[in-house]
Amino acid sequence: MSSLQHVLILTREYYHPKLQRVGGTGVFNSVLAKELVKNGIKVSVFAVNKNTVSFDDQGVEVYSIKGIFERNFLLEFLRSVTGKIGFLKPLHFKIYEHEKKAIQKQLNNWIRTNNYKINLIETHDFEGMALCIDERIPYVIRCHGSWTVLEKYFNYKNVSQGRTHCEKLAFEKSRNNIVISNFSKRINERFFNIKNARLIYNGIDTDFFKPNATNSILAKSIFYLGNVSSEKGAELAIGSFLKVKKSFPESTLHFIGKVNLSDLYIQENIMKNNIQESVFFYGEKKKEEIVELISRAEIVYFPSKGENFSLSLLEVMAMGKPVICSDIDSFREIIVNNENGLIASGVSEFYMHTKKLFNDSELRTRLSENARETVVKQFDLKKMIQATISYYKEII
């Protein structure tokens, strides 16, 4: 067995101001890389992004290349056109496979130029990035949420078939896979027939995400953390709030996250019901700003239609906030109804639970304390990192 000295993270997403905006996977990779460094492991990140840049990020070496579709207009045009014409699908697939081979060539050259001895590579499931890895290097796929799952289980539209094709090929080759929840395990076994995946729950820094007694609670406030979109349940949040507003005229609704301008339902209903002065949009925020805002919330909504596993939910629970979540498998894996949070199906139940929480301070306190305890015991960052390192060592 080799010693674990140098880990490489191959990714489309890495959270840093010098790179493009990312989702949860990019934030996860940033945290994972820095925690591995703290454990004495050298970490390099090879990112396929929209710009070419290299920098040090608190001991993590980050090297980003511009993707082949961003560099080659003709190839991007062919990729787009072939994805829309049925009989050109084989060519569409070949273009995506060509992209992965091009990335592999650049990655191998970079490793060779720097004379690196990489012990293990971690990558994500979406887009089949594992196809870029030389199979002589041990690697693991962590299942953050593939395009295949988004399309087939969560009914996302207009998903590129080239992306899902590469995901299928990548999982056919992969021997080492990490799933981040039991729901993730079931769904990936169903769509990719993966075997013997290791369950490692995502973890958060419970020393950073913690209750803040210095900030005063904004009475009768409902906060929402996540992209403001139909998929994340923004319409449901507005629908519930319209009912809440009738019972509690002083109540307010606060959205933290990127606003999807194509979802006209939200703005139309705000204007139609004349509640502009009671609904606030803060946009995307840094984690320090999120902590400051959420610390003022009386309750927090998570009305998403589908999640693989929600770090945002864990962060809010760690801050000791009562949460109301939609009735989906991944939330039920975390929330025990009426013990550490509330589960709701549809607008009416979100409203009824909100009314109950606003009227019952003892219930709010009990749910808040249990929420924090759940995250500290089961989803702490240190536990996740140690489980990850142990699995890495098994693989190499």
Poorly predicted spans = none
End-to-end C-alpha gap: 6 Å
Q: Give the overall shape, derived from the CA principal axes.
A: globular
Extended strand count: 14
CATH architectural grouping of the largest domain: 3-Layer(aba) Sandwich
The strand line-up of the biggest sheet is 3-4-2-1-5-6-7-8
The CATH C-level name of the largest domain is Alpha Beta
Q: At the fourth CATH level, what is the homologous superfamily of the largest domain?
A: Glycogen Phosphorylase B
The portion of residues forming beta strands comes to 15-25%
Number of spatially distinct domains: 2
- Measured on Cα atoms, how large is the radius of gyration? 22 Å
Helical content, roughly? 40-55%
Order of helices and strands: EHEEEHHHEEHHEHEEHEHEHEHEHEHHH
Query: What do the pLDDT scores average to?
Result: 95
Helices, by number, come to 15
CATH third-tier fold name of the largest domain: Rossmann fold
Instruction: Characterize the largest beta sheet: strand count, sense, and whether it forms a barrel.
Output: 8 strands, mixed
Please identify the structural class as seen in this structure.
alpha/beta
GO molecular function, one term: alpha-1,4-glucan glucosyltransferase (UDP-glucose donor) activity
Enzyme class: transferase
Keywords: Glycosyltransferase, Transferase
Organism: Chryseobacterium salivictor
